[in-house]
Amino acid sequence: MEKVDIIIKTKHMYTLEGEGVGYLSDYGVAIDRGKIKAVLPVSELKKNYEAEKFIDASDKVLLPGFIDGHMHTGHGVLRGVAQDISNWMMEGMAPFEAQRSIEAKDSGSRLAIAEAVLNGTTTIGDDGSDIAGSCDFIQKIGVRGNVSVRIRDALMKTYKAGELYIFDDNYGEKTLNECLDIFSKYHDIDSGRIKIRFGPQGPDFVSLKMLKKVKKLSKERNTKIHMHLQQGSRETKQMTGRYGVRSIPWLDEIGYFDEDFIGIHLTDALEEEVKIVAGRKASMILCSSSIGIIDGIVPPAKIFQDAGGIVGLGSDQALGNNCHNIINEMKLTAILNKVKYEDPEVMPAWKVLRMATIENAKALGIDKITGSIKEGKYADLILVDLNQASLAPLYTKPMRNFIPNLVYSARGNEVDTVIVAGKIIVENKAPKTFDMNEILQEVQGHADVIGERATAQFNEINGKNAVYMRENKL
Amino acid sequence: MEKVDIIIKTKHMYTLEGEGVGYLSDYGVAIDRGKIKAVLPVSELKKNYEAEKFIDASDKVLLPGFIDGHMHTGHGVLRGVAQDISNWMMEGMAPFEAQRSIEAKDSGSRLAIAEAVLNGTTTIGDDGSDIAGSCDFIQKIGVRGNVSVRIRDALMKTYKAGELYIFDDNYGEKTLNECLDIFSKYHDIDSGRIKIRFGPQGPDFVSLKMLKKVKKLSKERNTKIHMHLQQGSRETKQMTGRYGVRSIPWLDEIGYFDEDFIGIHLTDALEEEVKIVAGRKASMILCSSSIGIIDGIVPPAKIFQDAGGIVGLGSDQALGNNCHNIINEMKLTAILNKVKYEDPEVMPAWKVLRMATIENAKALGIDKITGSIKEGKYADLILVDLNQASLAPLYTKPMRNFIPNLVYSARGNEVDTVIVAGKIIVENKAPKTFDMNEILQEVQGHADVIGERATAQFNEINGKNAVYMRENKL
């Protein structure tokens, strides 16, 4: 009998190994020193291992933890102040973001990360500037992080319509140094539990010189580039105005796309452009709910996949999503693509579950350590409670209905247990490594201040939400 | 001091009265003998009323209960066995439905209704045949019902492609008599808590003679007709094959559309057809999630509204939705329409909230008794818990973010209290009038039998889900 830290016994396990979902019945896992030691039939598991902690998950389903490929967690403090609006950035976000202190942002990150974890996310894919607070929280509560640090040359100021962003070398270097600083502090700490990526904001915000430098530095550090790509007409205007060419052909010309490039959104990339990016073995992160709400667009994930590319899912941000719940992203990805192609067979449940787990791990370059249930990988696992109306009844014959119900019916609160690198983060739906009430109280305090201070600019801009307030529609 | 049954004190109340959402701050309601006795500022409420039960809902939001305009609750027992499939009815549902006993159907109804209620639905809009079990449960647990009973002449059998349905007068009369029987047993019982509607299945399933009879009988009984309308190409083929004309012009010709007609889906109605129905003051029920999953289509609700028609929301059924959660319907309705029109301002949060409450009450003809918080209406109310990551933080200034977060972020489990006609059905998220575990156990038993018996036909049909089972994708 070998001693291990945890044994989990299940009736239903989805490993996400292989081409499908890797279903196993009456199997269990042995977890030791953070990793999956064995995946075996329950009878053999009992014969070979004894554990400090034994979890009988017979009324639950064991899955790899969800991976969120792209988030701006710091926007958690601004949840719900920008949607149903055409100019999301200037008329929605701007007056609130202008008043958001770094402390408020950190508080928002804690809220967003806690929310995601309670919904079953074990890898937080954060992106942005001033991101040390988020990294601290990720490290402290024990989840996995794939964090990209924003690099940009374009000065932060209000630009006139059609005006090209002003690139400033000093500003660019400052953001690059922040990235390098975060990289040296957090990359690969806790046995590789946090990965730091280079995050040039987009080809329109970063100079050619800096982009080349970022490419070189990221390669030297054996990490990846995580970058917004072909986000919309504003980006296209900047690119054609500055270089006379759209983002993707321009970046391809300078050799930017390769297996270490993660492109975010591709909101309005043309079909041939999507094929270029996928063809270079770069990956794509799709934020279905956010882009649906903010732009009314279904991004070209299917084209990317059909061209052989890997696509993962992300929840983007809490103003204009407005949640961090990968189950919601799976559902929206499935339904929005069915509608886009007017074909109910497009993006079936099993496929979007892969995009939330193993495919997302591949997209982010962490599939050797997480994303599926396999001996030697870290024990990033969730247990989903079957005693829930949304998942009942359970059919195992002639077909298993669990995955369709997880994708199309589950709400997130069915997630009972969350384990990351063998550490139990959530148990019986309650967080073990953070205090939800403290997070809620703290973020409310920051929101009260932001709301007060944002009022003048909000009323001056007089966007759709200001109109709705006057009409008693909010 | 006047004595009442319940007083609820809130900081945030949305009455849904007026053109918007009727927000009131620091108000409360007095409830007596099932009805809303007063809606007053908290200070005045305290001065004038004392109550048996006092609910301090300062950390919750008070709203009218949600209304689900169209459900097939009996399909609850088949949740998740038909989606991601082109021929939903024949390749998805058929092998399972063939094995569904009336007892299994009733068990499914209890599951679906319980699920809906826990997600904040106070009016269950059930539709179908063999519906007495559903009516019984609605009556027993104390929720509101708007139930339509299926009438059809078309014999239940497998038809060849292109074959016209065989109308059988005896069969038609039998279904009509069932409807009349249910009507006499349940209509307006418990002070009008249950309404029974006439439910001809669709213009393709019912003879002209029967449609005319239904119209006459429903008028005599002062109730409404609830009918599937322009559901898809199968319906169109039947109508053009039989009458040489599409459903809507044909029904308009016989004067079928008026303020007592509720049209369901209008999945592929043409723009001019939609305008005909709306122009006759008939109403429409939109099932965004179901039609998105089953057909990959966004129904023409916006055209219906723009033509002056009333649109309410429905969750349809648990195979091919797969849930009964009006919050999910609000979200999908908002996002799918933004994508359809590529315009983020289409179907804002406040509008879909109206479609789930007061507009749905109007669509179903029950707005005099429910759908908003108003003196004299029944106390059909919900309290939504603000101490939830998905709804945090709360902004009240310069804009209120609660409704956008309810629509785009809430999952359903934020619903804390459900009151129907002054009776508390759910409190502290726990049901008071039904036993969830009993419902879950019972429905599982039926599913086990159905699954076993459906296996041969499932494998013979060999639809997409059978293929996915072999490929280990389920």
Automatic annotation (TrEMBL), chains A, B:
Occurrences of domain Amidohydrolase-related (ranges): 61-425
Cited InterPro entries: Amidohydro-rel (IPR006680), Metal-dep_hydrolase_composite (IPR011059), Metal_Hydrolase (IPR032466), MTA/SAH_deaminase (IPR050287)
GO MF terms held by the record: hydrolase activity, acting on carbon-nitrogen (but not peptide) bonds
PANTHER family named in the record: AMINOHYDROLASE SSNA-RELATED, CHLOROHYDROLASE FAMILY PROTEIN
Name of the protein: Amidohydrolase family protein
Highest classification ranks of the organism: Bacteria, Bacillati, Bacillota, Tissierellia, Tissierellales
